[in-house]
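Thread: Newbie trying to understand structure tokens

Hi all, I'm a second-year student working on a class project, and my supervisor (Dr. K.) asked me to get a predicted structure for one chain before our next meeting. I've only ever worked with sequences, so writing a 3D structure as a token string is new to me. If someone could post the tokens and maybe explain what I'm looking at, I'd be very grateful. Here's the chain:
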Amino acid sequence: MNAIAQTLRDSKSARWTALVILSFTMFAGYMFTEVISPLKPILERTYGWNSTDFGAVTSAYGIFNVFFFMLVLVGIFLDKFGIRFSTIASVIVMIIGGGIKWYAFKGGFSTTEEIDFFGLFQLKEQVFFAALGYAIFGVGVEYAGITVSKAVVKWFKGKEMALAMGMQVAIARLGSFAPLAFGALVATHSGVPFTILMVVLFLIAGLIAFFYYNIMDAKLDKQIGDVKTADEEDEFKVSDIKEIISNKGFWLIAILCVLFYSAVFPFYKYGPDLMVNKFGVTEKWAGLLPSLVPFGTMLLTPFFGSLYDKKGKGATIMILGAVLLIVVHTIFYLPFVTSVVAAFFNVIILGIAFSLVPSAMWPSVPKIIPEKLLGSAYALIFWIQNIGLWGIPLLVGIVLDKTNPGIAAAKKAGEDVVYDYSVTWIIFVSLTIVALVVGLLLKLEDKKKGYGLELPNIK
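---
Reply by user tm_fold:
Sure, no problem. This is what the structure looks like when written as tokens:
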């Protein structure tokens, strides 16, 4: 017991310092994830994009993760090579992808010439390379995400784990807030390439932060020494993945994750354009209302995480989040709701809903999956999540163009255009309804298997 008491993770200041360092890099990653989200009208005017172009780039985030199984591979890398290797590797990949995307907007590729893909479809050169950079970045940021999740479990298991995960999400969400709120304003005055470059510099700072974290992590490993738990001592084997995928609770969490995040993250991409076209917000401030979602999660996720730590009710919290998401997207769908005030309050509710979900979802995974498999479990969940993060933004962009057939001609003629989002928004309403059903099934499974999702985390 004395040896355990002397480890860094039993020092409150040390473990929270580690959390802040880990969270800063995720802050930078979330900044880059949303850097062009409020810029859709600006990109259409400056580079001649349409909604499908925008959807192709924003959906590219998940292409390598989903179709090349990169998320599964990096999860295995994490469990095989450890947290310290994974922190550095993940950020280097993010920086490479971010650099390619910046170069695409800087003028490195044509905005008019198209690349033909086996006669199936064509993409503008700039769109393709912007998408390629974002796809590479997507591998890195998801790799960093699962690494940080495992690191938080390492430092906070048996302590304030849900609160810590909530705080990590809160700091990361601040990274989403900044470009959504102010990205269009910066791009209007300084240009799109400058806006992207600023965020790439934050990624480089995140790499430096991870180097510092690794010093702490190495010291903790030395202190743990012979007091590792059985789970920590067991060496990970690839065959152990069978244990994960044969677990029904894992699949319910994973499906719930993809539904929740597909109903929120694509809103960051299209919410600003919705505000311009449906609610009459100016382009400069298009992302201001959607930015309240990550800002709200920044404030509320730690609160709900602390509540889960002390009182439990993890499955119930996720169900409540699903109900609120249904309300939010139904209101956004209704064609007659065009008041900016209504949009403001609706975004506030969305922020509350999205605070409920991650505060309960991520701390619930260690209750279902053994610690030695957490890297691969989180990776598989993120892989499934990325199917939605790839497919939904692309689907929304295509449906938006198909249901607004006169827009392209009107833009060429120099006319002011207004997109009708009413049919498109049915996609989000449907996702949230299915999420509620899956949440109820998860609660039933918890009662059968006794995972303890409704029990407190602090022992």
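A couple of things are worth pointing out once you decode it. Residues 2-449 form a domain with the Growth Hormone; Chain: A; fold (CATH 1.20.1250.20). The two ends are 16 Å apart (CA to CA). Feel free to ask follow-ups in this thread.
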